[in-house]
Amino acid sequence: MSYKQNKLNNISSPWDALKPIVYVVIVPTIVIFGIIVLTINKDSKPQANAVNVESVDSSYKLDKTHYSFGSVSQKNGNVETYYNLTNAGASDIYVKKLYTSCMCTQAQIEFSDGSKTALNGMLGHGPDSNLLVGKTIKAGETVKIRAVFDPNAHGPQGIGFIKRNITLETNLKVEPIIQVSFDADVTK
């Protein structure tokens, strides 16, 4: 009798023959499937929390669309500015998302009732749920968009001219994307 035949004859139960298959194929497959399911569920939660809001024919006004910080020293730390956004239409404007064009920049909306969004960062860096706003700018209401720029975010190689954008995704039919920007000349 060969070693292989002897090994097969020593199997005491069908389970002994299936153990290698279970441990090598089935268990890892279940683990991988579980990870996929958890990841999909985790990523889909923000979509479940997102609100479908009808588009509106409202309008808005900004006190400025661009701001220049001029020369900004890395030694002096963060700088910030505000943009006043007024809902100039008759319908409420629903703000879906707020995000920036770079992780060196964070943005926040301060509403007239005193509430604020989180300081939001760059789209694509972290869960989309962190960028969801889900608040309304009432007709006639003015909110402040706060922009915070960290000149140290890119380290010593971050010296020179920069331009960054802040984006609000809204339910406006015309121009649903509201965008403001700033620039700076970063020095040591």
Tell me which CATH architecture of the largest domain applies here.
Sandwich
Question: Reading side by side through the largest sheet, how are the strands ordered?
Answer: 2-9-8-4-6
CATH class descriptor of the largest domain: Mainly Beta
Shape: flat
Q: Biggest β-sheet, characterized?
A: 5 strands, mixed
Strand content: 35-45%
Point out poorly predicted stretches: 41-50
Question: What is the averaged pLDDT score?
Answer: 85
Percentage of residues in helical conformation: 10-25%
* CATH fold category name of the largest domain: Immunoglobulin-like
Structural class: alpha+beta
CA-based gyration radius = 27 Å
Give the total of domains. 2
N→C terminal distance = 81 Å
- H and E string: HHEEEEEEEEE
Q: Tally the helices: what do you get?
A: 2
Number of strands: 9
CATH homologous superfamily classification of the largest domain = Immunoglobulins
